[in-house]
Model the fold of this input.
Amino acid sequence: MAESPSTWLAHWKRYIRTIRAPRLVARAVPTASAERSIMSLESLFLPLLIVLLAVPMFLQARKQKRTMQEQQKLQNSLEAGDRVMTTSGLFGTVVASTDDTIDLEVAPGVTTTWVRAAVREKVVTDTAEDTAVDADTDTEQEAAPVATETEAKDEKDTAEVPASQSTAEVAEPIEKQKTS
Done:
């Protein structure tokens, strides 16, 4: 015989309650060991969070302290004649220094006063590239035929130029290049 939909629905709900009822009771009453494991995880959360935040901060502080010590050591070692680069990218030669300022010669006869903290680094004039270029030119000169008189004269001129002066050549102005 056909049951009405409401009777069928009532039977279905009763069946679902009997299936789920034991699970709900099991979840509602946790065992003592389950409570202890939950409490131990909760008690570890705060110390773990503190460690995860404190360790990177500690390492960053050490790195910053080391960098500051290196910068202080550099600034204290500056002497007259040192070639330096400032934080703004200006290259100059140290002429004189006091406790908190430094005088830099940025061009022949042009001296500026800077705060000592503005010096970023010492510039090394003899680099590995320079020595490699010198070695290449030595081997080329040995293999090359005898130089002409003008080349020999140019080499003498460059050898006589002091290290403080530049041997760079200045290009013609653009206006003159266009007319030629």
Strands lie at 83-86, 91-97, 101-107, 110-115, 119-122. The chain is about 55% helix and 15% strand. Confidence is low (pLDDT under 50) at residues 143-147. The CA atoms of residues 18 and 51 lie 48 Å apart.
